[in-house]
Structures are given as C-alpha cells and as structure tokens.
Amino acid sequence: MWRLKIANEDGISENKYLYSTNNFVGRQIWEYHADAGTPEDRAAVEAARLNFYNHRFQVKPSSDLLWRMQFLKEKNFKQRIGGIKIEDNERISYEKATITLKRAVHFVSALQASDGHWPAENTGILFFLPPLVMCLYITGHLNTIFSDEHRKEMLQQRWWMGITHRGTQHHILGLFDWVGCNPMPPEFWILPPFLHIHPALDDMNPMPQESHQLEVRHISSSYQSVAASN
Description:
Blueprint: E1 2-6, E2 28-32, H1 39-54, H2 65-74, H3 94-110, H4 129-139, H5 142-145, H6 148-156, H7 209-228
Antiparallel strand pairs: 1-2
Helix pairs in contact: 4-7
C-alpha cells in the first residue's frame, strides 16, 4: 500500500546520498509498504482507483485522494460543522459565510502535514523527469533507484506515452529501437529553420518550430546530466 512520507518522519534517511539542512522539512515522497493498512484501507484505495478510472474522462485530476484519505484517517477527522446551502437569488448573510469558512478551515487544517506544509500534486515538475529517467537507464541505475512497485506504476501509466509527434524521438539517445522510427537521421531535426528543407516547412508534417527547439533542449539536458554524473 502506498503511503505518503513527510519530511523525515521515522528519523532514518534510507539514502546515504540524501541529506538536508532542515531535516527534510517540506519534503514529501511516496513509499510502498506491502503490509501497510488494514484490509478495509486497501479496499478503500482500490475503490478510489476504480472510481477514478471509471470517471477519468470527466475528472482528469487525481484530486490527491490517496493522501487525503491517509491524512484524514490518521487525524481521525470528522466534519462536525454542518454545510450551508445557498438557494438561487438568496442573499448571503454574514453568519452563513462565517459557518462555511469555519467548515472549510476545519477540513483544510486536517490536511496540513506534520511539518506545516500542505502536500499536493504538482505535475508541472514531471515535465523535467523524463531526462532524469533516461539518465538512470543509460547509467544502469534504473532498477536501483526505482523499486518494483514504482516500476509497476510507471508501466501501468505508460499508455499516455504513445505520442505521435517527433518531440519524443528517444532513439536519438539510444533509448528506443530504430525499427520503430521513420527512416530519417535525427540530425535532420536540428537543421536551422531558414533552410528550405527544414521539416517544419513540409505541409505534410506541420510541426511547429517550438517542438524542435524543445526536443533539442531535452536531448541537451539529458547529455549534460549524463556527462555530469559519475
């Protein structure tokens, strides 16, 4: 069962290369514990996953359900402030606004982590993770850094990686077999846009220049990471 670990809750740093000057305050990391939780907890997690899957086209964000369920149970949270319903064209009174605010604060306070911050999903930074994963693959440390459960989750979510545009030409790094690519050398995509043979000028392949620049940046960052590692 996946558990969200806050800061250095157990007082043990499992990674000798990982250090902090503030005891990892603000750090949040998902850890998998095979024996964690009760059968009811595991059933609730699977029910939440199934509900998310069944409504994935209507509600795409995860809503942070897993860590919310974990925190609310750990703090024995119960919403004791009744909800207020405002009818159409009804005037919002000071009393109703105050009750609603107290109800929201009561709930949000229960979601605060032990070190003071509020955990949340921020997929924006995931945009920079693929080059790091590539470096782990190239250096042979992928299975060392990622546990079996981490790799399992990555494989389960790999369907979204089937992107057709050429910004995902991982064969340039030797991460994908060339037999699955168009017969075109990768250097062709790095040509300057003022050349008449630039691929972005092809009507059959209207790929924006931003994608070419983005691909070059991805490749460059990956090479720099590999070169800087030992």
